[in-house]
């Protein structure tokens, strides 16, 4: 049995703006700073005095908007944009957001970060009423729910639709006369509101976009909120009061950019604290600390400071490695030809190395890096992971939907250590993680979703329930 | 008077191989690891049992070789490759290397890293003999010199030609039956020889390519050497004995990859020592150390360890910023829209920051970063530079050919500090630099060329002499 | 007031196949022969044992399917394809056919040639029931009508939907288990059925595709028919009996390829007869006949034979003129720089020329060609048009939807002659046209729609009625 | 033994202009009208007050100059341009003209139509003097000859070089201060001079370019002439007096555009006369005349008029067939799928057809068309060829360099008739050809080169002599 090597992937980022004469351009720069949340497609939809227009395509934001004209044609003072992560096979342009729904009497745009867990059921119900879906994306469901709602007031149609969808979602809805932002009742996905110097309101999956576009953070959208932004300002409303914060802990561990802050906590600082806590939980002797670039450099800094060991650049990532690169043949790979990551023998030779990584998914990458370091002369390689062991799938917007992909779902720590060839393996404890992030909240697990580590999901699983139950009984042997 | 904002640029990288069934593929991966030395063009020329073939184009190596077929058509067991840095306007494909010279009875390929200083004179002499040049590149001169040589033995023609050209050069010459590597009498540019597990010999501008292709380092080519590699092995010969090592110190400071070693010294380690020495020379109080990503991270590590201050990720570089990116308009830039670098206010707010950078060219970038850090809340920004002040041009292969581009050529340290808006400005001393690199040699300046800092060039300047003398009298006021 | 220069444009061509192992490839070649019916977009949807797949894009069929892989990935033994004509601004890929509708329990594809005249009304009714349209194309309406139909049997849903749409249409509907072809009650658009040697059934807008794919013509689809093609063969059914043949006469005059036959009449032969009839109606003296390439060459042959005048190549069309060509600036155009058409002075100098063209829309092109011929030395230019004067818009699938575009709607023949600068101007009579085509039928106007010439439309105009009535009162002065 | 299907190919077209503010644009339109002379590459070199600049690439002129900016950047009031025909494998951009030679003190551009027959000898001699060629093209030789000339006056260098090269050539040489045009001593290739309304002088391979750019023909360049065009006007000079007109008869038969005139004879008119003469030499009964589109339509007109038979459109060429088109697989081809040419059964069914074609090279195409016509129902197909049988290669600029490609070199007329499956086969007689063209000259063969038909070459064959002699003894059996 063979497994595909997979890394963790976020499902999308959104950015919106209201009240800026160059709304498309600002959105472009905002999306650029969210590029790490999705590289398979991007789009921007603008609103020019009630007239919507859009440009979208597969690829990076810089590929989608190759020519200044692609942006310049998107006039208007309001916009929503989206960067998309897509699993292979769904790369059709039909699925690239923002979606744009046009009617004889109105139109609106829609962008979505997250994953619905009752999508199959809702879609079937809607199709039985005559609905035709133009994409395979969950996102389109909200539009059909709004159009089929029997409510008479438009905002009530929206609230009814938001109450029907379950799972993780951060929506941006561009109407002819307003921009609407909405978050799921658990706040699984981050969504923040900021303000530019000229008074324009911006909404973004991450606050790093605010630094880039020169905006000041106002506050994060809260679970169950629906926020209306129009020429009269910002109106905060709710579509449900049955809420409880459970923000995805993987945002802090891996996904979010280190310069973002989520619910008031800077991501780099949280990671450095995780590294420091990991150093306290680490029980071995070593000479130097080496972080796996780029995601684990903050944790490596924290580990080095707490442990007193020198932090060294023992692994180098080639900055020119792109998706379009020709890969070495199997034969060349066996001869040692590799491109993405090099171990620096001048640094690690003869040293006992603590290799810091943010997480282990399948173990394949960890095994390779351990091997690289040993070939470069490291005498011992102690793997220290800045998060607990990933053992359960996510249904709220991260692409780990099966336990088969997870080495920790099927192997003990000692088995894993042997598989990856390390001299020791240390995971951060769940409590250590929660303390390191340190949100100010009374919610369980410190306001975090840690279901990937303990299998306790904050909501029912709806359409996924049965498949998930079955997966718990599967035992998969790696390697 | 306006100045263009310029960063330092290396002029090219070369890679060669003899004796590998997939010579083109290995060269591709080798060049990929040298991509930082030139991004404007690339090419590979292979030798299949005496039949040469070539593919070259403008762009990154991954753009030049978009399709596997581009590589597969280059059969043969030997190859030379080149990545090219080019100033605007010379981006013609005619100038992209390797060059390929075909005759009715023979043919050869040629790749070059460096800059000749008597090129104008040589070209004029050759044209008066009827020579027609097909490019504006210095590199072609060597081929005409070889063809016009009156020597009868081919290697004597090559040696005569090598003795005629002056300046900095590392040449790779692919003949039908051998690969020739040659280095200038001062060894201004790095050039190393390695061996793969299957016995193939590789030659590269930097040893980082050896890690990538799985080769072991044998030794560096020495000043004045001409090395012949063919089926019988490696033969080391010299074309001159009037040599003296003066390797470009900027290779250690900025250009070379941290995982490369030059003349036995690992580049990351040298930089870390520069950072530590800089900490010893630094005279101010501060709270945290922040390196400018990515080139100054090693020096920041060394500074932090030596000073005991925490090393923090206070600046974030967007990894998706590409050459093709649409830039913010002036208007948006004034509104604070920026893309390449963000300061992390969650990290620097309220802190006295030591900002570590590798060098200052025009000062424009330093001024921007200082401003970014202050806007993000840093109370003080102390700029510490991991090299001495750049005040003189380079004629041996780095693109700083006029003093007008250099802030330190025209301003004192205190003036520069005011221009960039820092609270203090510290440069590493020349002696500190030489000691930090620490080559084992008896040559002056520890075997380094430090002419950019002290204006003492290791050779006569030939065609550049007059212009350089004039430039010393020019005084240019910045800002 | 300025007018855009417009030529006549057909709205689309369709091709379908059932029962061929290389259905996509055959469809590709079929569409290639229908390329003249639409150059703005193309697509193919195949059916592989109930699994549908599709490839579509803007551009010529050869641009849409650039790589053999684009075709090879479309497996299956049945297919429908479409070439699209689009007015500027609607070139979005969303509007390129075949459309593909996917449901949780079924899916189907749809391609359409023609124009609906009650589309606005139907779309509004459907949206009020919750329908969301994913394109601005009329074509999508049929799918929504089928899905909203209360009929229980699928074919009854289809027939109900076909009865609801009004105007000109030839539909191909690819179901999981059958291919359905349907024609409007007047048979405005051509649609023919053929059979390949291996038994595969093909359906095409024109029979020229049958020559190209090696198929034998069986018969044309009749007005009001719905034809089902599946593994058991062909079943002819009707959805209405209220039918009357009124095939678009412009198909014979201009659109269809000369090698096609429609309702049994070869197009080249019909045109040659129009040319001969035109010669009989022509009242002037002349020396030579020159047809405007390429569409008027058949009529010129007929005219020359009937009149006894020599047929000469007095106008040359540049075969390399493409849509992407850089056009001469206004300045160069005034200096006489032109690219598409040249007059041959060696042929026309000193001659009285009969210039044969198929039709006059705005007159701009005719005026230019007359001028070209005179500049090349023609002493007289007598313009003879192979059809009656175009004075009324078409609503059934040809892109002349406003009278403003038509010179004959606003000017007498004598005025037109003066505007185009001809020495005489002769149009073919309506009766001459009908006789030349010579369909075997009892229907009015010999089974032809000649509404462009006499303003008598075979159906009510529905959504277009009001606008059309108004346009009759507008008087527009050209030039 | 297999043979490649080959059609006749011209080797290149040239266009030059002096004294027009938009020289590049005019050259673009001029080259566009010469596109039929070469489709593999194109380029334009302009002269802006002594500063030369160039753009060239593979592909059609419309592909090479995709963006208006490609043209606009070529400023200056003088230009030379080239369209290139290339045999496979030589498609490198290095061989695309105009060539551009740059020296420390001067520079010039060069474009060439024709083929040298002593190129191998000259190149070897030059390389022994140290010359390095940058292309594999014959054209470059002239530049090296000029640079190695010991003459002191530049025009004398040029004349000496022109006297050294042998074969067919029409050169355009762009100097900093003048445009030079030169023709070989036999005038094998056409070259005409014209004048635009604004006084600009243009030079072109064919006069059709004059119609397109709005220029008046002045006169054709004569054998052995070297023409200098500069700001003072046109100066006609000669580099040799040993001249004799032998213009390539294939220019009249096949290559040149019908609207061009060569040495005063319009090409369409010449072809029509060939068709009429062919009708007189034709000895069979038939019902209709069908010309193979597009090159044989003129001859078909002449044949029809002379014979009194109706001229019919029995073969249709698909105007959208492009080089990039996906071709039918062998399997589909056997099922009758074809794309480029269709026979119109509605026209040819039951008819005895005279099929007019301009020439037969290998016979493969003729055999296919005969088969197409018979499958479409023609009862007899009489092939009548508007030129004598092609039996000998050309060395002066047409791509038939071996007798193996020519069916008439190895088969009698009767054998050929059987091979192509025709009911009769008639070639035009050599005298009939010469009379039909009817040049006013005393030169042998009416001033034409008819060596392809009788093997009598107007010059020694130099480097080709030996290979040609050998080929006369080879007998190759087709099919």
TrEMBL record, chains A, B, C, D:
Enzyme class: transferase
Record-annotated Glutamine amidotransferase type-2 domain positions: 12-232
CC cofactor note: Binds 1 Mg(2+) ion per subunit.
Pathway as given in its UniProt record: Purine metabolism; IMP biosynthesis via de novo pathway; N(1)-(5-phospho-D-ribosyl)glycinamide from 5-phospho-alpha-D-ribose 1-diphosphate: step 1/2
GO molecular function annotation: amidophosphoribosyltransferase activity; magnesium ion binding
Catalysed reactions listed for this entry: 5-phospho-beta-D-ribosylamine + L-glutamate + diphosphate = 5-phospho-alpha-D-ribose 1-diphosphate + L-glutamine + H2O
Lineage top rank: taxon: Bacteria
Gene3D superfamilies given in the database record: 3.40.50.2020, Glutamine Phosphoribosylpyrophosphate, subunit 1, domain 1
Pfam families for the chain: GATase_7 (PF13537), Pribosyltran (PF00156)
Keywords, sorted A to Z: Glutamine amidotransferase, Glycosyltransferase, Magnesium, Metal-binding, Purine biosynthesis, Transferase
Active site: 12
Residues reported to bind Mg(2+): 295, 357-358
Cofactor: Mg(2+)
UniProt cross-references to InterPro entries, sorted A to Z: GATase_2_dom, Ntn_hydrolases_N, PRTase-like, PRTase_dom, PurF, PurF_N
One GO term of the biological process aspect: 'de novo' IMP biosynthetic process
Listed PANTHER family: AMIDOPHOSPHORIBOSYLTRANSFERASE (PTHR11907)
Functional note: Catalyzes the formation of phosphoribosylamine from phosphoribosylpyrophosphate (PRPP) and glutamine.
Family per similarity comment: In the C-terminal section; belongs to the purine/pyrimidine phosphoribosyltransferase family.
Protein known as: Amidophosphoribosyltransferase
Organism: Streptococcus troglodytae
Gene that this polypeptide is encoded by: purF
């Amino acid at each position: 049995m063979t497994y595909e090597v997979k890394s963790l992937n976020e499902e999308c980022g959104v950015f919106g703006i209201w009240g800026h004469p160059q709304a498309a351009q600002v959105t472009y720069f905002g999306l650029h700073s969210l590029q790490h949340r999705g590289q398979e497609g991007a789009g921007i939809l603008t609103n020019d005095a009630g007239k919507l227009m859009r440009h979208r395509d597969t690829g990076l934001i810089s590929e989608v908007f190759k020519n200044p004209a692609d942006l310049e044609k998107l006039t208007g003072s309001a916009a929503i944009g989206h960067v998309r992560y897509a699993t292979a096979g769904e790369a059709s342009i039909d699925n690239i957001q923002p979606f744009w729904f046009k009617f004889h009497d109105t139109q609106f745009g829609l962008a979505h970060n997250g994953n619905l867990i009752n999508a199959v059921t809702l879609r079937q119900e809607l199709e039985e009423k005559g609905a035709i879906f133009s994409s395979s994306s969950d996102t389109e469901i909200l539009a059909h729910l709004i159009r089929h709602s029997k409510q008479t007031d438009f905002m009530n149609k929206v609230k009814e639709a938001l109450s029907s969808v379950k799972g993780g979602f951060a929506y941006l809805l561009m109407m002819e006369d307003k921009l609407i932002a909405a978050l799921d009742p658990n706040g699984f996905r981050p969504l923040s509101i900021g303000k530019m110097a000229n008074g324009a309101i911006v909404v973004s999956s991450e606050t790093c976009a605010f630094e880039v576009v020169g905006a000041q953070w106002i506050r994060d959208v809260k679970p169950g909120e629906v926020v209306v932004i129009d020429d009269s300002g910002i109106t905060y409303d709710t579509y449900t009061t049955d809420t409880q914060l459970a923000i995805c802990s993987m945002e802090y561990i891996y996904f979010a950019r280190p310069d973002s802050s989520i619910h008031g906590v800077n991501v780099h600082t949280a990671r450095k604290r995780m590294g420091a806590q990991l150093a306290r939980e680490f029980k071995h002797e070593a000479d130097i600390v080496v972080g796996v670039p780029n995601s684990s450099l903050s944790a490596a800094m924290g580990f080095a400071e707490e442990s007193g060991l020198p932090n060294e650049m023992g692994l180098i990532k080639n900055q020119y490695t792109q998706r379009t690169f020709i890969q070495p043949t199997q034969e060349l790979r066996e001869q040692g030809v590799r491109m993405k990551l090099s171990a620096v023998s001048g640094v690690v030779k003869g040293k006992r190395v603590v290799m810091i990584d943010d997480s282990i998914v399948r173990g394949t990458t960890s095994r390779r890096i351990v091997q690289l370091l040993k070939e470069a002369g490291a005498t011992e390689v102690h793997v220290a992971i800045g998060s607990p062991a990933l053992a359960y799938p996510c249904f709220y917007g991260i692409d780990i939907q099966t336990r088969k992909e997870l080495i920790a779902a099927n192997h003990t720590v000692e088995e894993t250590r042997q598989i990856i060839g390390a001299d020791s393996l240390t995971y951060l404890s769940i409590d250590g993680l929660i303390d390191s992030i340190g949100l100010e909240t009374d919610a369980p697990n410190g306001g975090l979703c840690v279901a990937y580590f303990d299998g306790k999901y904050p909501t029912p699983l709806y359409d996924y329930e049965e498949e998930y139950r079955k997966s718990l009984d599967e035992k998969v042997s790696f390697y």
